[in-house]
Amino acid sequence: MTTVPALPSFELLSAALYLSPWSQRALATTTILLAAAAALIGLRWAKAGLLNRLVHQRDSIKPIRFRNLQLLSPLQRFELVRNSLALAHLIFSLLVIAGALLAVTVELPVSRGYVLTFFGWIWEPLRRISLGIVGYLPEFLSILVILFVLRVALRVVKFVFDHAERGNLSLEPWVHREVARPTGTIVRSVLVVLAMFFVVPLLPGIGTSAAQGLTVVLGLMVSFGSTTTVGNLVAGVVLAYMRPFRNGDWVRIGDCFGEVVESRFLYVRLRTIKNEEVIVPSLQALSANIQNFSSRATEQGLILHTTVTIGYSAPWKTVHELLICAARKITFVLQEPKPFVWQTALNDFFVTYEINAYTNRPDQIYEIYAELHRNIQDTFNEGGIEIMSPHYTQIRDGNHVTIPASYLPKDYQAPRLRVETAP
């Protein structure tokens, strides 16, 4: 009993129709091309349908956010999806065309060997990549476990130090409340670095010579290019534990005066009285004189002062009264403790008076000084004392003495001018 070998369905069809080999190849090529054309048309219709649906839902697209940071706006998300559809359509179309060309050329005996060789060139790298991915799965799962533990640890540290900063949890005497936030940042950074020590050896290709050479190059770039950055970072850590100011304090750092808006390890951001934002590097802030106008203003009051110079002819008690009266009229000056006056210098022709007044509003320093100067002018004008720094260049013989009138005898008269003539 003879056995009839099984033939593929296409060959059975060809045998049933008594087709020649060239006719069979032509039929197969036609079938392949028609299937490829149908696939391309189907891909085009699918792309058009998806794009039409995307356009209709454009107004309902929401932005992608991570916490308070907007990663993609609705327009950017729409453009991303549309470009992704166009790219997917292009890739699948190229795959269909490449598959059709491969199937057609395989049917030709002349090109079959070349096509199979070319297919092997493509298949072998894909096979090695697939085996590499499968073999890397244990290390990948280890990295996921490390990252999960790191995420939990970071959340616990953030929770603890956030509550310590708010005063709900006390970590003293090890960590003061005012440095809880920077300490938490340092602890989280240390945890991230430790996790990197465990993750980096598990990365693929990390032990190759190319990776080692790249690491050396990156290390040199960081060493030569980040000297100032490292200095600012260290200075920022020192400033954080010195606690010279807090957010909201009014300070003067060098020549810059303003409110502390943000204090980071690398910089301090100030907002000046002119509503300008100034960024002071931490290294510059550490090396400059820092004056904090807010640290004691609420409890003890901040003393603001200005000076005037008045001639010796004006009684010093009257000058004191007028200066104190001018200070008491200011809106943001405290009535208790009382303003006071110092005589800081007895110059050759005039006296230097310094008026000191307390305030608990360091944010209004410029307004207080402006109002104080206006009040001094008005008060001295009303008191009949001229604000001036007299200088004498005339001969004193015949002039009235500059001692206040209350200190002079009642019968005092200015000496007469004496003129002598030669015989």
What brief labels describe this structure?
SH3 type barrels; 4 domains; five-stranded antiparallel beta sheet; 10 helices; 10 strands; elongated
Detailed description of the structure:
α2 packs antiparallel against α3 (74-106), α4 packs antiparallel against α5 (180-199) and α9 crosses α10. The termini are far apart. The chain is built from ten helices and ten strands. The strands form three sheets. It has a five-stranded antiparallel beta sheet. It has a three-stranded antiparallel beta sheet with strand order 8-10-9, covered by helices on one side. The protein has a two-stranded antiparallel sheet with strand order 1-2. Residues 1-7 have low confidence and may be disordered. It has helices at 9-16, 21-56, 74-106, 109-166, 180-199, 209-225, 227-242, 282-287, 316-328, 365-383, and strands at 64-66, 69-72, 250-253, 256-263, 267-272, 277-281, 290-292, 302-311, 340-346, 350-359. It folds into four domains: 10-107; 143-228; 247-292, SH3 type barrels, CATH 2.30.30; 302-383, 2-Layer Sandwich (Alpha-Beta Plaits). The longest helix has 58 residues, at 109-166. 53% of the residues lie in helices and 14% in strands. It is of the alpha+beta class and 423 residues long.
Major β-sheet annotation: 5 strands, antiparallel
Give the spatial strand order of the biggest sheet: 6-5-4-3-7
- How many domains would you count in the coordinates? 4
How many helices?
A: 10
Helix content: 40-55%
Extended strand count: 10
Mean pLDDT: 83
Radius of gyration: 44 Å
Percentage of β-strand residues: 5-15%
Given helix and strand content, the structural type is: alpha+beta
Q: What series of H and E elements makes up the topology?
A: HHEEHHHHHEEEEHEEHEEH
Q: What shape does the CA trace take?
A: elongated
Q: Which segments are poorly predicted (pLDDT under 50) over 5 or more consecutive residues?
A: 1-7
The N- and C-terminal alpha carbons lie at a distance of 177 Å
